[in-house]
Design a protein that fits this description.
Blueprint (H helix, E strand, L loop, with lengths): L1 H9 L1 H18 L5 H15 L6 E9 L2 H13 L4 E9 L13 E4 L10 E3 L6 H13 L15 E5 L4 H14 L7 H11 L3 E2 L2 E2 L12 E13 L2 E10 L7 H12 L3 H7 L5 H17 L1
């Protein structure tokens, strides 16, 4: 189906959301419908998405003791940074703050706090011009950070693989994820169930995953093939199997979009598939991402 392939390649995340919606509908109504019906669902989502701002969405946590009015001043100041759409949470600094830093792109705090990797900017009563400049710089810098590197490890990177079929490859990657303690042994069945709805191949690569988030750890297994293998209607040079925990952050959407952006160039995928180590693979991805964001 030409339309299906076009939407999968051009709007992959919207298509993947449509697959999830199709699965939900089929379970609820106890019906089945063919692959091309998912395409029509995707068209509805695509039409709706045209009404959504194309600004960059950022999640910000404010830790402040100043109450609703004081916090609203800071929120209004953030809203004036026109390059971003902010989703803002506020925590009272007078109590011991408890939060998941992975859910935020930036933390604004009136007192020093320590985090593992989320940037923190300390401010006084309101945001000064210097604070706003720092915020913009930090959020722009995160655009060049390779999301992929946070979910991969050498033990789950496999170069020069000789699999003959997609199913064989999926089984192997699921087994390796289970050995690493990232998923349960039934994850293979969940990935195949997603694959049965619609192939997860996008041009010359594949991103297999389960419909539901059931992993023990957020992780990715990567297989690079010595020669392309058939995956649905496409011949692919690599597969990246995603596994995500039930706890929801922006990770899946950010990662999925990043992968599709990186792998949009067939020539780059061919070059990437020849990587021998994970460090080489990630370096090529970072260089490609930097180049795309400069252009």
């Amino acid at each position: 189906n030409t339309l299906t392939e076009e939407i999968k390649r051009t709007y992959p995340f919207i298509y993947n959301v449509s697959v999830y919606a199709a699965s939900y509908i089929q379970k609820k109504l106890e019906i089945t419908f063919p692959d091309y019906e998912i395409t029509y669902i995707a068209l509805h989502f695509l039409a709706a998405s045209e009404n959504i701002s194309n600004k960059l969405e950022k999640n910000v946590l404010i830790i402040s003791p100043f109450g609703e009015r004081g916090n609203q001043i800071v929120i209004n100041q953030l809203r004036k940074l026109n390059d971003f759409n902010f989703k803002i949470d506020v925590i009272n600094a007078l109590i011991s703050p408890c939060f998941s830093e992975d859910a935020y792109d930036l933390i604004l705090s009136t007192k020093p706090i320590s985090t593992i990797h989320t940037p923190v900017i300390q401010y006084q009563l309101t945001l000064s011009p210097e604070d706003l400049r720092k915020i913009t710089d930090v959020l722009q810098t995160t655009l060049n950070t390779l999301v992929l590197k946070d979910y991969v490890r050498p033990a789950l990177f496999f170069a020069d693989q000789t699999f003959k079929t997609a199913t064989e490859c999926i089984l192997f990657m699921c087994q390796q994820l289970a050995l690493e303690g990232c998923v349960d042994e039934d994850y293979y069945d969940l990935v195949l169930a997603r694959e049965a709805l619609s192939s997860t191949s996008f041009g010359n690569y594949a991103i297999p995953h389960a419909i539901e988030r059931t992993a023990k750890e957020n992780s990715i297994a990567i297989c690079l093939f010595d020669r392309p293998i058939q995956w649905g209607e496409n011949k692919v040079r690599m597969a990246l199997l995603l596994a995500f925990k039930e706890e929801r952050t922006n990770d899946f959407g950010q990662l999925f979009e990043e992968l599709v952006q990186l792998l949009a160039d067939d020539a780059f995928v061919k070059k990437l598939s020849k990587s021998k180590t994970l460090s080489e693979f990630l370096q090529l991805c970072q260089t490609q991402l930097d180049s795309q964001q400069k252009s």
